[in-house]
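Hi U.,

Before I forget, here's the chain from the pilot set. I'm dumping it here mostly so it's searchable later in email.
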Amino acid sequence: MATFEEATDIFNYPFFKLLRKAHEVHRQNFDEQLVQISDILSVKTGGCSEDCAYCAQSVRNGTKMPKQPMLDLETVINAAHNARKRGASRFCMSTSGRSLSSDEEFKKVCEMVREVKGLGLETCVTLGFITEQQAEKLKKSGLDYYNHNVDTSPEFYSNIISTRTMDDRIRTIEIVQRAGINVCCGGIVGMGETNEDRIKMLVLLANLSTPPKCVPINKLVKIPGTRVDDSRPIDDFDFVRTIALARILMPKSYVKIAAGRNTFSESTQALCIFAGANALFSGEKLLTVDNVKNGTDKNLFDRLNIKIEKINYV
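Structure:
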């Protein structure tokens, strides 16, 4: 079990000592020259009743994002095909809202999972809260990963969300894991929290009964109208430290640089990869915010001698 005190000591190592330690842990558990690529699509957008302070899709924020119905299956499959062409081995499908609003919507998501799985891609969904029965049906449909972020530390959580608790999130994670589905769970940095909060979030994840298989670290993308659009950005070196600590505390997990990657220089991204980040999102869009432009990753990977992790396509 990782303790907050131990994790804090590691986080505050001299910068290059921290990177060396994280890189060595990474080399012991993964091929240091490989990165896993995912793509994500919002299959149902807007109209969310939750009050997450960072989210453009919440009706409680001032973003006025229009509500859009669930995408049709053909649109989703075409997007998955394009993701595969870009080198993605995993395709993620996200719906807005506290949970799916009907059995019909859930059936549509299960069909999406089956069809995307049939393309030879790993599948991931984020649907908010789900029941034991829904988790079992998703597993039977071929779901590989379920994304359900804790967002921040337990202590800072109430500053960001009041419509669901941290315990609610942990219960959903436990439901997913009992169904035999891998968990993708991380958080967002740069919302006004401190490094102490970032450390506590990672300690929480590392001390779950089974640590997440994938740990996405999102840098806040400021959206006008949200309650954190004036927060102070995280320092790049603190972001790298957060990546390094995640790698050390969860040595066998994929550590993913998620939202906000387009705001980092190539040098900062390279430091993150050296510190143990081995998963990225491709595509020009991450749900409702911009991601990196097409072609920029290939240029970076070529210069760093990085290769994209493959799965056996059917």
